[in-house]
Amino acid sequence: MPKLLLISLLASASIYSQEVIAPTPEPVGPPRGETIGDYNITNSFETGYRFLLGSGDLDKYRADVNYGSGIRLLSSSLTVDSLDGHGHYFDKILLNTLGLGNDPYQSASLQVEKNGLYRYNLLWRLNDYFNPGLAISAGLHFMNTTRTLQDHDLTLLPQSKVRVHLGFSSDTQSGPALSSVQQFDATGSAFPVFMNVRRHWNEYRLGAEGEWHGFRFNVLHRWDYFKDDSGYNGVASTAFTGFQPNPFVPTPPGLNQFSRSEPIHGSNPGWFGNLFTNHKYWGIDARITYDSGRNDFALNEAAAGLNFGAAANRQIMVSGDARRPVTAGDFNFNLYPTSNLTIANSTSVHSSRIQGDSAYTEFDNGFGSGATMDFRYLGVRTVANTTDINYRVTPWLGLFVSYGYSDRLIRTIEGFTLSGPFANTVYQRDNHLNSARAGVQVRPVKPLAIRLSGEIGRDNLPLTPISNRNYQTLDGRADYRTRRWHLSAAYSEIYNVNSPLSISAYSSHSRNYTADASWSPAGRFSFDASYMKLHLDTVSSLAFFAGETSLQFFQGFSQLYISNIHAANLAVHVTLSRRASLYAGYAIAKDVGGDPVQSLFSSVASFPLTYQSPLARLSIRITPKIRWNAGWQFYNYHEQFGLTVPLQNYRAHTGYSSVLWSF
Amino acid sequence: MDRALLLSLLGCVLAAAQPPPPAGFVGSNVCRACHPDVYLNFYKNPHFISIATGKQPAGRAGCEACHGPGAAHAGSQGKTRIPVAFSQLTPAQTLNACLTCHAHDLGKVNIRRSEHTLNDVACTSCHSIHHAATPRRLLAQPQAELCYSCHSSVRAQFDMPSKHRVNEGFMQCSDCHNPHGTFSPTWAMSQRPPMVEQSLGNEEPCIRCHVDKRGPFAFEHPPVRVEGCEVCHYPHGSTNTRLLRRPVVFTLCLQCHNGAANFGTRNNGVTPLSTIHNLLDPRFQFCTNCHVRIHGSNSDMFFLR
Asked: Which residue among A90, A500, B41, B120 is buried most deeply as judged by most CB within 10 Å?
């Protein structure tokens, strides 16, 4: 019994922080499990009731957290192991579930294995996603969908030189949503319409792996099918007036009827090959992938309503296809001339060619506006080479340097025609990135490790004004680890300047400071605390039209965005007695912002807010096989900016009471 | 007690079934005498298969496969150190020891050039072979906790209001990252970000789940294909909804769409707004209200439908 207690205490001492209150991670049942026949079995099940008491903007709560009320199978775990590794049908079963029974995040994983014969893995996941059309970032789009993911992988003869892999994956998203459409004119009048989301993706995989004269190779083919049959309709909607009428549109358009169907069916079948060998002084690994994506689509849209007070109707038909063959290859060559030195060179090539045509026909008030066809080609070819040298000077000192070169060619062809052949326009853009890294690892005493590294990169012609152009990074970390203590401090900085011209001034400077302390002085107590400061300031040039009576064009308007986040975590785990343990935690993320001026067009933009979540849990062992648990977690979201939209603040008390049992 | 006896007998049977070990090797059954706490649970360990199959030579089976020949150690009743004691090894030595068998796993072929290896993070920093917290992959702690123990700033991001559901258990870090190193991320400029696992088509891992963003589309939004999703989104978590890099949509878009020369696929700047967009009108401040297919469209080159 003392041994059981010791193992239980050790297990609980290793628990640091936990960000969500349930399920309960405390151990239950005999740690070594129970032996039945030729198998050993361990299991645990946690069943309980979650509750939610909330106030404020609960739609925002659902978007961020989404735990509700009801009975749940909060978690379960089952392991079955054969004692001698020679089970009849299987040698190992691992089954874990989480949140089954209406939690918004549910999962189940299963592994079944028979030594030398097969290994099967299943991962099933469900995410209940809710987006309430958040006013700041997302505008009108509401979404209340469920996404279900599943992955099945079967390996035959997993320990032999020749293995066979079979796999199946699926991703389904379905549920109601509101989307928006723009109709009748070009004034930007958007109308919300109902959308029934129906998206489905399946992938089948078949591959083999083998060894021959020290080379291991792998070939895999996959078949991939995607379809999106989401349907739209909206009836008797009125004009969207927004938060302020457009001064240039005295009578906003109105939409009375709308329907759209735009089925997309496509596939991305592909091949994957890999070659690998490793010897005493050298090693090679290489891979190649080829994907030939294709989507076929058609769109039929009908709208009726008012345009500047007059009756209007519009019908649009679009059809076509989009194709994207992608070829990618990597070749890595590693050298190990001495036990202290590793030289790795990697060459990568990626080529993707996206093209498609889209035939568009429109009828306005019964009159055809003609049929057009657009063609667009986007080709991206990237070649990259990096060399890494890692040298261990002494057991306590190591160095690494790295140099990388990338060349990317972007080629676009855009075509437009009313009839006859395309009049193509070709554009081309070639850029190079050179980067170098260096780092040092020092271990002056065994528990202490210090790592420093830095990188500098130069890109001559990045695609966008916010891409990395002249950037540098700096990383530093000190770790002190003993059996009972873990202390660490780190600093990370990324600085990017991308401003070849004054009107496109852009710089981004992020600095992250972190400090952590974990202390487990005895099996009965553990403590974990961390503090992070995540600072980002971005200066960017905006160009836009604005005006109350007449439009003015603002170019080179420089805006400084400041995100200055202080975040902290605290967790304490105490074993109160032989039966009871207490866990308490606290997490806070606070963006204190910068300049208090609050205007969307301010030269300084910051959006201070606080998000915090204290939690506490008590777990009591009733019998060696039963525990009772109760926990509470509070979520408080508090915006401090408010601009032109209502605040989305909320407060939510969540919690649970459960029984954790083993049989 | 019965269980211990059963396992002891089982060990004897297994030992008896194997050919006599070569010089220096004593077999795992000898180790059991002094290390019963490890041995009694070893049949649950994935490494137990090296014993169970009975096909591995002495140097690659059981305890001595990792710890080296144990005759001297056992003969001195533990007074001499086992040849390979992982607590005494340097990170590079630990890596070499594990790669003796695991070098052929395709998921680990880039480990020599991984960020972890370059920064002296060895296998035993994350894996605990004899006291694992997870039976799968033998991790020393549950995966997220393990990663957070070094990547504190990432933990802070997952504690923010808008985030991927890692803390909730729906996802794991390894859904997007390969801690053993990856090939170069050539969906962007190949240098950064490191340790992000590509999907099979050498694409970003985001589209493994967000399959509707995968396309191909007749009209692609070029930055999505050229710079990757993170040009607009934070992948871990953010105080901004939908993991956006800026809290207000139009400021995010206008950072690029400012017409500055020498950018964009046409080399003459990313297209600025047209004159209908009066940004004092809130309807134009939510760009994606109208440009609903911002990741790519089949029907409209301006992503309006």
From this structure: B120
Is B173 contained in some domain?
no
- Write the single-letter amino acid at A562: I
pLDDT digits (tens, 9 = 90+) for A623-640: 999 999 999 999 999 988
Range of the domain at B45: 2-84
CA–CA gap between residue B144 and residue B126 (Å, rounded): 11
| pLDDT tens-place string over residues A301-329 | 998 887 767 788 889 999 999 999 999 99
* Residue B281 falls inside a structural domain: yes
| B170 assigned to some structural domain | no
* Rounded Cα distance, B4 and A518, in Å: 36
Question: Of B151, B178, B205, which marks where a domain is finished?
Answer: B151
| Number of domains within chain B | 3
pTM of the model: 0.91
Q: Is A140 on the interface with B (CB under 8 A)?
A: yes
Domain end call among B151, B167, B196: B151
User: B113 and B75 share a domain?
Assistant: no
Nearest chain A residue to B165, by CA: A105
Torsion-angle region of A286 (φ positive above 0: left; ψ -120 to 50: alpha; else: beta): beta
Minimum Cα–Cα distance from B10: chain A residue: A84
Q: Which amino acid is at B185?
A: P
Q: How far apart are CA A118 and CA A104, in angstroms?
A: 33
Q: Is A522 on the interface with B (CB under 8 A)?
A: no
A619-652 burial string, b = 16+ CB within 10 Å, else e? bbbeeeeebbbbbbbbbbbbbbbebeeebbbbbb
Give B152→chain A minimum CA distance, Å: 6
With a CB cutoff of 8 Å and minimum separation 6, the contacts of A213 are: none
Nearest to A384 among B110, B136, B186 (CB): B186
For residue B18, tell me if it sits in a domain: yes
Closest-CA residue in chain A for B193?
Answer: A468
Q: Which residues of A touch B213 (CB under 8 A)?
A: none
B138 touches chain A (CB under 8 A): no
The closest alpha carbon to A94, from A124, A125, A126, A121, belongs to: A121
Beta pairing partners, A403: A387, A436
Higher local confidence (pLDDT), A542 or A123:
A123
Task: Indicate if B79 and B50 belong to the same structural domain.
Answer: yes
- What pLDDT sits at residue A252? 62
DSSP string, B109-146: TTGGGSHHHHTT--HHHHB-SSS-SSTTTTBSS-HHHH
Same domain? For B46 and B105 the reply is no
DSSP annotation string for A197-232: EEEEEEEEEEEEEEEETTEEEEEEEEEEEEEE--EE
Domain match, B57 and B19 both = yes
Instruction: Report the distance separating Cα A85 and Cα A544, nearest Å.
Output: 69
CA distance A201 to A266: 9
Residue B82 has pLDDT above 80, yes or no: yes
Same domain flag for B76 and B106: no
Decide the pairing of beta strands A34-36 and A39-56. antiparallel
Contact at 8 Å (CB) between A352 and A270?
no
Give, as one character, the DSSP assignment of residue B1.
-
User: What is the per-residue DSSP string for A181-198?
Assistant: EE-SSSS--EEEEEEEEE
ipTM field: 0.91
